[in-house]
Each structure stands twice: as structure tokens, then as C-alpha cells.
Design a protein that fits this description.
Strand content: 15-25%
Number of strands: 20
Number of helices: 13
Distance between the termini: 40 Å
Shape: globular
Length: about 475
């Protein structure tokens, strides 16, 4: 195959560690070299394609380590397929997703993983990997964990929520953690006390409190904090690292911070919905709040400041989307008259990089921290760095030319996710993805989709790079 060279000229290259005015040379799908602008290279670089990034940022493609394409939930399926979801990811400057394969109760992990390989294979516009959801912890599934780690599926999600669906009890959680302590896997935890929540759900419905806003009220902050605390203690007993997904509340964050202050290998993720949305959205009239039903739920606005602070102090390390879209018409409305039947999940894979850039504009985080929480840390956390998450010689040429000055309004009218509403409808943000390369191939060219279904490759992962 003939060698192809692309040169990105004139931009400000931003990584988690540096900002440098540099030209970026891409060869055969990888970053070949960087040269500070104005520095003398022995001979001028030539390229088949030159991309002008003057007055633009040149950033690594986003790594979204928490998506649910085609997820079965509550009698329906997430409305984005791997095809539509990864295309939307590309539009939003995300070039790698890590999705969740699901084990069915009573069935092997392998069967669930193979089903997800089949869903994604040949259908993705950008690269992808998998975590494994453990729904049934037993002797054989524990043994299978070891084999999956060797195969590059190095993280396993457990649920303290959803009794009767994904729920694991403390004994099962401890066993899985003990296994991960020996095989190098990372346990990801949905930390909410689902047994207690179900009592509050039953009581609310019996009292006629059926609107979407009660979804947020029954899934109490204290039940997230309690489960987070319990997960941390179980991980300590097992001698295992822990990654808590979609942290939404100040009290749960305090549990993570306390554990990290003790030097424990405990990590936390939050999502844009907890940083930008609140219970005000869940209370929108005419069942509109159903659009915002996700778990953990949206919290009162005052929690936002604590989450931003956690991102600045590194008590939270990653922002992922938990992208799990359901259409308002025909899916969310399954829960009219009973909030517990509203499918849980929000669309967001396309919005994350822009919302976090807005956070830079608003002064919540720095530009380098933006890249750290959205690209570099998720890549390191899940064993893909420096192939993914940075711009450095040898890295995959997953590169975004980002215009930090363009203003845009987020809307269902203009997004590319396969869902009939935007969770951020009407929100004005500054900054927009202009051009996106995935392994050196231009998939978004000056706001036009030029990628193709099947370009995205499965990416096996190493183990968490924050563990000595």
C-alpha cells in the first residue's frame, strides 16, 4: 500500500501536558512527528494533504469510555446503533468509544461478549473497545474474567442497583473484586443502593407520585453515597482498585476523595449531564422530564459546583457520557403514569467535547485539563495510552482540528445522534469540531462527514495504567 502523508499546519497543539504551536505530520495512520512552528526541520515536510489549522486547536480525538449502543433496557433498546452512534461520536470529536457488552444471567461472559463483537463488527465509523457487564457472578464467570483480561477486555462493570436485572450482592461483588485483584482487571461500579431504592419507588407509586421528577427523588443522594462507601470498603477488603461510574452527588464524591486521601486506588467518573443539567430538567412539564431520566439521576444544581471542584482537584479523573439514548416518542413514554418504567438514559456522545470546551470558556477547567479528562486519562485508565489520547510520535493519528471561536446552538435539529430530542436543546456553546481524523483518515472534513461505516476497528486494551 502506498504511503500517505498528511500535514496539519499552523495550529495550537493541546495535550494533557503541553500546549505548543506546532505542525503535525501524519504518516500511514500514525503521528510521525511534531515540529514547533518556526523551527528549522532539516528539509521542509511534504504531504499529500495539507490541513490549515491557523487560529485553531489541534487536539487528540476524544475517548468516551462509557457508552451503551443498542443496549437492551426495560423492554426496548437504546436508539443508537454502533453505526449511528459512532458516526455521531465522530461529529463530536470523539474517535474512540468503550461500550459495554452484557452478560445474561445464567449465560457465559463469552456469549455476551461475542454478541457485542457481532453488533459492532463492520459497523463503526471510529475505533471501539468493550467493557464487560457481569450480571451473574459465579465460579465459571469468575474464571472467564481471567481469559477476557488476556484478550484485551480488562474492565468489568458491576451493579449495586437494578435488582432482578443487573444487581450483584456484596458477596458477589467481593468475589469479583478479589478476582480482579489477581488478574489485573478493573472493577467499574454503578454505586446506588438498589434494594433500598426499590422500596422508595414502591412507596412513591403507591402514593400516586408517578411523574418523572420522582425518579430523582427516590434515588436519594444518600443511597449513592452509601453505595460508594460500601464499594470502597469491599475493594479495600479485596485489595482491588475501583472505578466508580457516573458520580452525580457531592456526598458520593466526598467518599471518593476520602479514599484517595488515604492513598487508595479509587477512581471516579462524572458525565456532562451532572455538570450542566439538574433536577430542574426532571421537573419539566407535560412529561418532558422523562427525557432526563437516567441513573444515577440528575441532582439539584448545587451539586454541580462540587463536581467541577472534584475535576479540578483530580478527585474525579474522567468525564464520559454514559450515552444511552431512548426516543421521547415510543420509548421514554413507556413510563407515562409510572416513572419506574421510563427507560434510563440520555444521549450525549456527540456533545461531550463541546460542553467541556464550554467549561474551559466558563473558567471551570483549563484547556489541558479538558484534554486530560476527555482524552488522556480515559485512555490511560483503560489501557489504550499512548496509542489513544495524545498527540505524540507513534500514537494513532486520531486528531481533531477544533475551532475555539465558532458559536453554535445545540439542538435536535442539527445533531447526528439517532434520537428525537437533545438533552441540551437551545444551549449556546463556544467552540466547534471542524475536521476529524481517525487513524489518519479524514472522517469529518470542514463539517462534512467523509468517513465510512466499517472504518472503525476493535481495539483490545491493556490493563489500567494508574496501577503500579
Amino acid at each position: 500500500m502506498s504511503s500517505t502523508r498528511t500535514l496539519i499546519r499552523g495550529g495550537l497543539v493541546i495535550t494533557a501536558s503541553d500546549e505548543i504551536h506546532a505542525d503535525v505530520l501524519i504518516e500511514d495512520g500514525r503521528i510521525a512527528a511534531l515540529a514547533a512552528q518556526g523551527s528549522a526541520v532539516s528539509e521542509p515536510w511534504t504531504a499529500d494533504r495539507i490541513i490549515d489549522a491557523t487560529n485553531k486547536y489541534v487536539i487528540p480525538g476524544g475517548v468516551d469510555a462509557h457508552t451503551h449502543m443498542e443496549l437492551p433496557f426495560g423492554g426496548t433498546f437504546a436508539s443508537d446503533t454502533f453505526e449511528t452512534g459512532t458516526r455521531a461520536a465522530a461529529w463530536g470529536g470523539t474517535t474512540t468509544i468503550v461500550d459495554f457488552a452484557v452478560q445474561s444471567v445464567g449465560r457465559p461472559l463469552r456469549e455476551g461478549l461475542d454478541a457485542w463483537y457481532a453488533k459492532a463488527d463492520g459497523n463503526c465509523a471510529v475505533d471501539y473497545g468493550f467493557h464487560m457487564i457481569l450480571s451473574d457472578v459465579n465460579e465459571s464467570s469468575l474464571k472467564e474474567m481471567d481469559r477476557l483480561v488476556e484478550e484485551g477486555v480488562t474492565s468489568f462493570k458491576l451493579f449495586m442497583a437494578y435488582p432482578g436485572v443487573f444487581y450483584s450482592d456484596d458477596g458477589q461483588i467481593l468475589r469479583a473484586m478479589q478476582r480482579s485483584a489477581t488478574n489485573g482487571g478493573l472493577i467499574m461500579m454503578h454505586a446506588e443502593n438498589g434494594i433500598a431504592i426499590d422500596v422508595l419507588v414502591e412507596q412513591a407509586l403507591a402514593e400516586g407520585r408517578t411523574d418523572p421528577r420522582y425518579h430523582g427523588e427516590v434515588r436519594r443522594v444518600l443511597l449513592e453515597a452509601e453505595a460508594t462507601h460500601r464499594a470502597i470498603q469491599l475493594a479495600r477488603v479485596a485489595g482491588a482498585p475501583l472505578y466508580v461510574v457516573h458520580v452525580s452527588a457531592e456526598e458520593a464524591l466526598a467518599e471518593l476523595a476520602a479514599a484517595r486521601d488515604m492513598g487508595l486506588p479509587v477512581f471516579g467518573e462524572t458525565c456532562p449531564q451532572y455538570l450542566f443539567l439538574s433536577t430542574d430538567n426532571l421537573a419539566e412539564p407535560d412529561f418532558g422530564g422523562a427525557k432526563y431520566v437516567c441513573s444515577t439521576p440528575l441532582r439539584p444544581k448545587e451539586h454541580q459546583a462540587a463536581l467541577w471542584r472534584g475535576l479540578r482537584t483530580n478527585d474525579l479523573q474522567v468525564v464520559s457520557t454514559d450515552h444511552c439514548p431512548f426516543c421521547f416518542v415510543g420509548q421514554k413514554d413507556l413510563g407515562r403514569g409510572d416513572f419506574s418504567k421510563i427507560p434510563n438514559g440520555l444521549p450525549g456522545v456527540e456533545n461531550r467535547m463541546d460542553l467541556l470546551h464550554q467549561a474551559v470558556v466558563d473558567g471551570h477547567i483549563t484547556r489541558r485539563r479538558w484534554i486530560e479528562i476527555a482524552c488522556a486519562t480515559p485512555a490511560r485508565m483503560f489501557g489504550m495510552y499512548p496509542k489513544k489520547g495524545t498527540i505524540a510520535p507513534g500514537a494513532d493519528a486520531d486528531v481533531v482540528v477544533y475551532d475555539p471561536h465558532t458559536e453554535q446552538t445545540l439542538s435536535v435539529e442539527t445533531h447526528h445522534m439517532n434520537v428525537d430530542y437533545s438533552a441540551y436543546e437551545g444551549k449556546r456553546v463556544t467552540g466547534q469540531v471542524e475536521t476529524v481524523l481517525s487513524r489518519g483518515e479524514v472522517v469529518i472534513d470542514q463539517r462534512k462527514f467523509t468517513g465510512r461505516t466499517g472504518h472503525g476497528q476493535y481495539t483490545p486494551r491493556g490493563t489500567c495504567q494508574y496501577l503500579g
